[in-house]
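Handout for the seminar on molecular recognition.
Each group receives one record of this type.
Step one: identify the two inputs.
Step two: read the structure output and locate the region that could contact uridine-diphosphate-N-acetylglucosamine.
Step three: write two sentences on what you found, then compare them with the reference statements printed after the record.
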Amino acid sequence: MDKLIIEGGVPLTGSIDISGSKNAALPILFAAILSGEPVRLCNIPNLRDIHTTLSLLNLLGCPCEYDEGRVTVTPGELLPEAPYDMVRTMRASVLCLGPLLARIGQARVALPGGCAIGARPVDQHLKGLELMGARFELEQGYILGRCRKLHGARITFDMPTVGGTENLLMAAALAEGDTVLENAAREPEVTDLANFLIACGARIEGQGTSRIYVSGINSLRGVEYSVMPDRIEAGTFLAAAGLTGGELLLRGCPVNELESVILKLRDMGMDIDVLPDGVLAKCARPLRCVDVKTEPYPGFPTDMQAQIMALMCLAEGAGVVEERIFENRFMHVLELVRMGADIRISGHTALVRGVRRLTGAPVMASDLRASASLVLAGLAAGGTTEIRRIYHLDRGYEKIEAKLARVGARIRREKE
Ligand code: UD1
């Protein structure tokens, strides 16, 4: 297992290219199952979750290979089974459910268990697919789904779920008749998936709003499509500029999709300018704490909660961070406290009081974004921070230590 060693205290300066979005690439790869023709994708980040998805697509009968950011998925004889070993390591595997039911009328997908950031059920995915004509049984830890031909339906989600909206969008694209998704997730990654499906010939309207209309068609054609840039990776690097008092130009940064994050960072005192060649983030003065509440898009993203909390650890004053999307998403807090942060948790909120300095320490990564917050804290801390279990980081950040080292960070990877 690898670990990261960081010698903190260096202001980061220079430019960083933002990679393709993991959370947009995953559903789009699964959506390739729907097409009867080869699909060529580019701007696919080189990440562990992407390779897990490609292995799963191969198992499901869609041969595909990764080549420097490009993936071609070729349609083949589809098989219905997503085994536990895959779903266990990547919850997003459940996104094959809708496409498999739409294409072959059956799917056997391991039920994702609880995971580090809360229970995260898939009841909304199943409820929607049932309204479209699928029947489900639970068999030895597997969801066994069957249907004749999915039909359109009016589906109202109990909460805006990103994965649920994506699964239903994919199923509805090939269903018979019209589907309306109400209280749909508005996240840019859902919009990117809809745009991909539209490029394949699907009839979809309203993506990016909470009501999406889909008019089912019989088949989708092949297409070449470039995945959107990763707004969470970009947000993480903006926070890195703030924490180290540096100046970073993020090339290919998705500005509109990051608006809620940019506004909060400006509130904290960072200078963030949108330039023709990217977003320039500077931080020369002491930052101040703000209150942050995570919400569905266009609110502040839960996937940036841990990173902004790391930034607040070294800001002036105090601020409250409220996590409204996932229970149990404060695992980074105890590790930050081990580095000298002053944070108190009470239920879904954390009170952060800024301190003058953080000190390096051995810490343990617990999930993807928690790991990112520890990297950020390590970059700003005095002395050496050693982050263990960084396989979480490798699930979602492409070449993070190379990108950071190029802008001056003293960071290296070692075998544990
Ligand atoms: C996706 C993102 C993840 C991000 C999250 C919220 C991917 C691969 N992952 O996860 O990085 O943190 O959106 O922006 O894109 N829920 C239910 N029942 C369901 C589905 C969801 O109760 O059937 C609840 C969840 O427990 C959670 C909330 O709804 O409390 C939102 O979850 P959801 O939007 O579905 O998250 P994911 O799609 O799993």
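Reference statements: The pocket of uridine-diphosphate-N-acetylglucosamine is lined by residues 23, 26, 92, 118, 120-125, 159, 161-164, 185, 189, 302-303, 325-326 (CB under 6 Å). The chain has a mean pLDDT of 95.
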